[in-house]
Amino acid sequence: MCKIRVTFDRFAIVGATMFLVQAAVAAPQVSDVRVGVYASKTRVVMEVSRALDFRTFTLPRPYRVVVDMPEVTWSPKLRAPPSGGLITGMRFGLFKPGLSRVVLDSKGPVRITKAFMIPPNAAGRPHRIVLDIKRVTENAFMAAYSRIGKRSKPGPDATPRLRPPVLKPKSKSGEKIVIMIDPGHGGVDPGAISRSGVWEKHIVLSFSKELRRQLRATGKFEVRLTRGRDVFIRLRERIARARAAGADLFLSIHADSIRNPRVRGMSVYTLSERASDKEAAALARKENKSDMIAGLDLNEQSNEVVNILIDLAQRETMNESTVFARQLVTELSKVRKMLRNTHRFAGFAVLKAPDIPSVLVELGYLSNRSDERLLRDPGQRRRMATAMTRAIRRYFDRQEALNQP
Ligand code: ZN
């Protein structure tokens, strides 16, 4: 067995044991992260409420330092990420159940020269994880990176394969229509963050749960969420979950943020190789970055997520997506301000299920005060969900009518 796998397995076993031992105790908390800049290195110090096992690794293009640890909680103080020296940004959150992750963006290629844990001191500092990071040349980085790459084929955790499609015969009488709602981002990928500190990952989850409630109440739909809590899910896993559930419709829910604070309104997107406009292309590029943001090695992934090529089998599905998107725009524009040319298209990786009509909805702009206020308001979210539920009902009513003998 290769070295990396052994390390990871040991980590997993330690994690599982810790879970059993600490089941009755609260999860450890990360209370502070500091970055110290020295002439020869950048030092990152994370304060944790008790000793824990962790592992670190680096990733190229973009260059990142990743710290994995058993599931922890995060102090609210961590909301403003520190940066300095070789560190330009930081994200943190649940990577998957039982595993929390910190992703540090680095200024170019770096090496972790030291990574250790120190116990509490007399000055009242708690346990600390310490990482020393040094700049290296790109060649040195890639040499070390490919050495590791040769020793270790990525484990099943690193690159889950897309399962073959589970196609179920549609519209059998009595069988419920399956809707997969996909709250964007989550865990270590926060999505957009408003100036007042509202996180896209939280807003879209609240909205998705409200939409699920209303769709279920119709009695016509079986409704699933790709994530029901604040956890990261990679893009193709979202598609895989929809296919495994035999979904008839896939709805990815987001809320955007852009530099111009005056821009506001909802918008609806479908998949296309060629984008309808510059803004849609830029939005797709941003949303497709989720895996990178969460500290995944894009160099190990196939081009499936990064590169959007559409095969023939997908065309029919894309037509259906467009039909639904129009229906959605009609209903949403009755209750909310819509962006100009509101149905747009671009290469969104998460909409790439070849056999499920898929639409991505941007609920509004967290960078706009009025939109942000509406998105925070549960009553307004209810109204938007009601309009969406109506559009979904109309879409399937029309399908049923078309399928009548
Ligand atoms: Zn988003």
How large is the radius of gyration? 23 Å
* Outline: elongated
How would a crystallographer describe the biggest sheet?
6 strands, mixed
User: pLDDT below 50 for ≥5 consecutive residues: which ranges?
Assistant: 1-24, 150-169, 302-306
Distance, first to last CA: 59 Å
Keywords:
six-stranded mixed β-sheet, 27% strand, elongated, disordered N terminus, binds zinc ion
Notes on the protein architecture:
The protein is an alpha/beta fold. 34% of the residues lie in helices and 27% in strands. It has helices at residues 3-21, 138-151, 200-217, 235-244, 278-287, 290-293, 303-306, 312-335, 369-376, 378-403; strands spanning 29-37, 42-48, 55-59, 64-70, 73-74, 87-96, 99-106, 110-118, 127-135, 177-183, 221-225, 249-256, 266-271, 338-346, 358-365. The strands form 3 sheets. A 6-stranded mixed sheet has the order 11-10-12-15-13-14, sandwiched between helices. The chain has a 5-stranded mixed sheet with strand order 5-1-2-9-8, with no helix packed on it. A 4-stranded antiparallel sheet has the order 3-4-7-6. Strand 6 (87-96) and strand 7 (99-106) form a beta hairpin. Mean pLDDT is 84; it is low at 1-24, 150-169 and 302-306. Zinc ion binds next to loops.
